[in-house]
Amino acid sequence: MTAITVDGKAHAAELRAQLKIQVAELKAKHGITPGLAVILVGGDPASEIYVKNKEKMCVEAGMAAFDFRLPDTTTQKQLLAKVEELCRDPKVNGILVQLPLPKHIDETAVINAIDPLKDVDGFHAINAGRLATGQVGMVPCTPLGCLMLLKSVLPDLKGKNAVVVGRSNIVGKPMAQLLLRESCTVTIANSHTKNLKELCLQADILVAATGKPEMIRGEWVKHNAVVIDVGINRIMLSDGSTQLVGDVCFPEAIQRAKAVTPVPGGVGPMTIACLLANTLKATCIQNNLDDHLMY
Ligand code: NDP
């Protein structure tokens, strides 16, 4: 049987199209336009590209985008003041502070200054706690996108063995929580984990989020497993050109798996689509319009 290459671009486009309809309905019925504020501190080129994309997709979905470019000399106090101002602004339903922040700023302090109801990245400690305790809250965009892609090829996740390689607060841990919520048996691996290959070989669902280019080899993949590759790594080729690869060796994994997400074109596009979904969700919650929630 030929393995499925999960088309994240197509899934993301479909989700954005659904969101656009919901946003139009929200405007027509309630006169509400969801608003997303994005703060970028400093001029990191990769962050610039992410932020531009986020704003473009936001506008395409019919939402309002408010963008704040602050110099890298911005102090923590100034950034916190901006976040607090946006927390009070009724036109702003979602606040995203692009990470990483310059070294002199405490990221955790900034994230926890965001109103949890406007925390569309889902990184606030309250939202992390809500996810861990099965309460409604904002779920981090990348793991949420991973779950949607996973369910597109494996609708019933109950009882599946899931291995998440990576335990970051933004990907690994929330991914594991989502899988637990779906009644998977979840193992979270980290850089100290012993016998990682053997662990991975038991996984019906294997999620790789390590930032280590192609570290998960084909022979680590259980036959017929679903492999979700979160990694985005730019590697240098022998001819001096560069290439984007994931944390999974795709050509090897596709030989054994039931389905694999490619890099690029897999998880990446879902992240921004889920950011828009979270912005709509935040808007609905803030306006007591639970009936508009898509998930
Ligand atoms: P972090 O660096 O924060 O975390 C990496 C995790 O991988 C850590 O928990 C680390 O373990 C673990 N790890 C590293 N090496 C190994 C190893 N050899 N064996 C087992 N575990 C290992 O990364 P992020 O979670 O932020 O991101 C992971 C990847 O996903 C990156 O490539 C990033 O670019 C990508 N990413 C993609 C997104 C998208 O939209 N597609 C969004 C966010 C991230 P330990 O804790 O012990 O150090």
Provide an overview of this structure:
The protein is of the alpha/beta class and 295 residues long. The chain has 2 domains: 31-116, Rossmann fold (3-Layer(aba) Sandwich), CATH 3.40.50; 141-268, Rossmann fold, CATH 3.40.50. 41% of the residues lie in helices and 16% in strands. It has a 6-stranded parallel β-sheet, with helices on both faces. It has a 3-stranded parallel β-sheet with strand order 3-2-4, with helices on both faces. It is globular and about 50 Å long. Bound molecules: NADPH dihydro-nicotinamide-adenine-dinucleotide phosphate. The site of NADPH dihydro-nicotinamide-adenine-dinucleotide phosphate has 26 residues, from α10.
Draw up the topology in text.
Layout: E1 4-5, H1 8-30, E2 35-41, H2 45-60, E3 64-70, H3 76-88, E4 94-97, H4 107-111, H5 125-132, H6 141-153, E5 161-165, H7 172-181, E6 185-189, H8 196-201, E7 205-208, E8 226-229, E9 233-236, E10 242-245, H9 250-256, E11 259-260, H10 267-286
Parallel strand pairs: 1-11, 2-3, 2-4, 5-6, 5-7, 7-8, 8-11
Antiparallel strand pairs: 9-10
Helix pairs in contact: 1-10, 2-10, 6-7, 6-10
The chain binds NADPH dihydro-nicotinamide-adenine-dinucleotide phosphate.
**The level-1 CATH class of the largest domain:** Alpha Beta
Q: Biggest sheet, strands in spatial order? A: 1-11-8-7-5-6
**Sheet bearing the most strands, described?**
6 strands, parallel
Q: Name the hetero compounds present.
A: NADPH dihydro-nicotinamide-adenine-dinucleotide phosphate
- By CATH, the architecture of the largest domain is named 3-Layer(aba) Sandwich
Helix and strand succession?
EHEHEHEHHHEHEHEEEEHEH
Low-confidence stretches: none
> In total, how many domains does the architecture comprise?
2
Helix content: 40-55%
- How many strand segments? 11
* Shape annotation: globular
